[in-house]
Amino acid sequence: TFGNRTPPFFAQASVTNPAFPRAVGEEIPRNRQRLDLLQWDLENPYMVQYNLTAQREVLPQLVVMAGYIGSRGIHLFRNVEANQSIPEIRPDGSYFFPVNARRRSSEWAAVRLRRTDGNSWYNGFVSSVTKRFGAGLQLQGSYTLGRSFDEGSLAAGSQDFNNGFPPRYADDRHDNYGPSDFDITHNFTFNYSYTL
Fold first, then answer.
1. Which of these, 129, 153, 124, lies nearest to 140 by C-alpha position?
2. Where are the beta strands (DSSP E) in 82-159?
3. Could you give the CA distance from residue 78 to residue 8 in angstroms, rounded to a whole number?
4. What percent of the chain stands above pLDDT 90?
5. CA dihedral 24, 27, 29, 32 (to 10 degrees)
6. Is residue 82 classed as helix, strand or coil in its secondary structure?
7. Rg for the chain (alpha carbons), in Å?
8. Plot region of 64 (φ>0 → left; ψ -120 to 50 → alpha; else → beta)
9. Which residues of 135-165 are buried (b: 16+ CB within 10 A; e: fewer)?
10. DSSP class per residue in 16-42
11. Strands 95-96 and 137-150
12. pLDDT tens digit string along 59-92?
């Protein structure tokens, strides 16, 4: 693989068994090049966060906290392969991609498109117990039960997570819906501090 990754114009191709010492002796045919595009009418990605917590001192110097936290990501970036074949839709609604199906455009090998049509959802229950002792000692334990779902875990322009690129079918964003790659259902922490 070689190429200059300077948008908006760059060439990148994979060459198998290149001639030494000159791997690329002639221009790479376009049907072996990748095209990187950005959706022309990008939406501004944003996150809505919400929470409701209650805290109470149940015994002298023993404080309990419980609450709900959540967030909703809207218009998030997705990297999709826009030059894939169009699948057959089976009677049960599933997609089938024949092995030798033609790409939508035979002029290009791959067309990676960055869109802002992704979504994410997070919901969690949080709780903590804090106990203050005399002589400056404090103990705290916290527990979070949470779930994070999305339509593709990724950072813009990279493939940092396992399901980040590409989804199976670009035109059905919800087909890639599932637990986020960074989803941690159970999280327990314990800490203490001692003031001298």
1. 129
2. 88-89, 95-96, 110-132, 137-150
3. 18
4. 35
5. 40
6. coil
7. 25
8. beta
9. eeeeebeeebebebebbbbbeeeeeeeebbb
10. SSPPSS-S--SPPPGGG-EEEEE-TT-
11. unpaired
12. 988 999 999 999 999 999 888 888 888 888 899 9
Give yes or no for a contact between 149 and 185, defined as CB atoms under 8 angstroms apart.
Answer: no
Is the separation of the CB atoms in 18 and 24 below 8 Å? yes
Contact 80, 167 (CB under 8 A): yes
The tens digit of pLDDT for each residue in 94-126 reads: 888 888 888 888 777 778 888 898 999 999 999
Q: How far apart are the C-alpha atoms of 116 and 67, rounded to whole Å?
A: 31
Q: Which residues of 57-68 are buried (b: 16+ CB within 10 A; e: fewer)?
A: eeeeeeeeeeee
Task: Select from 37, 48, 65 the least CA-distant residue to 157.
Answer: 37
Cβ within 8 Å of residue 1, ≥6 positions away: 12, 13, 14, 15
From residue 71, alpha-carbon distances to 31, 50, 68, 178, 181 in Å are 42, 6, 11, 16, 16
- Identity of the residue numbered 47: M
Helix spans in the chain (H): none
